[in-house]
Design goal:
213 residues, alpha+beta, five-stranded mixed β-sheet, 9 helices
Length: 213
């Protein structure tokens, strides 16, 4: 039986956000370590045993979190043993795992979700940041991280690690089909991954109405 996690379950839940962010594609460029190692070095969590025990209790198999964004847009995130998978309106937009796909949302689109309860941080790993947006995105993510207990003092450093993994090599483009990109491992790269085109076109319409972009 799938186990549903509610937004209240993760509100200011340090162990959840620590565990969740450790899945991100971020890294410390200077130390050449992945974000899970960078998080461990921050000392936010004092005991790995505490974290492992919490994970086994909080994330039974087939866990998920979902909810409505507005009348025509909803999200669904599935937590599996080796993968986190993301959906908008039941359409797949990417995953964090061994064969990851990400960089679906633009930073401007993600910012529109910021007014929704906790959605900015939940959808953050599915966001692509253009190089011109790096400084702004670091400040924005730092602001959200400071609201999480025990993250305050390390928020700027963690934000930098996160952004390193979100930067795309190209840009998003507005076309007659809506917003797309040419990034590898992005569902929104419909030229390289035409199997996603129908879902992307439908989502583009819903996202445009929601964001106004």
């Amino acid at each position: 039986m799938p186990h549903q996690i509610t937004l209240n379950d993760i509100r200011d839940n340090t162990l959840f956000w620590y565990s969740y962010i450790s899945w991100f594609n971020g890294y410390d460029e200077k130390k050449e370590i992945n974000i899970d190692e960078a998080l461990e070095e921050t000392g936010i969590i004092k005991s790995n045993e505490e974290l492992y025990e919490w994970r086994s209790n909080f994330f039974p198999s087939n866990s998920f979190i979902s909810g409505q964004v507005n009348d025509e847009l909803h999200f669904h995130i599935e937590f599996q043993e080796n993968e986190i998978t993301y959906f908008l309106n039941d359409s797949y937009i990417g995953n964090l795992g061994g064969h990851f796909e990400a960089w679906f949302l633009t930073l401007d689109e993600l910012s529109k979700f910021g007014s929704q309860d906790l959605l900015f941080m939940l959808l953050l790993p599915m966001t692509g940041i253009e190089k011109r947006q790096i400084r702004y995105s670091k400040n924005l993510i730092t602001k959200h991280l400071t609201s999480i207990s025990r993250f305050e003092d390390k928020a700027a450093y963690i934000a930098e690690c996160i952004v390193n993994g979100l930067v795309i090599t190209g840009e998003f483009h507005k076309t007659e089909k809506g917003i797309i990109n040419d990034q590898n491992h992005s569902v929104r790269n419909i030229n390289k991954y035409p199997r996603y085109i129908d879902n992307v076109l439908k989502l583009n319409e819903s996202l445009k109405r929601f964001t106004g972009l």
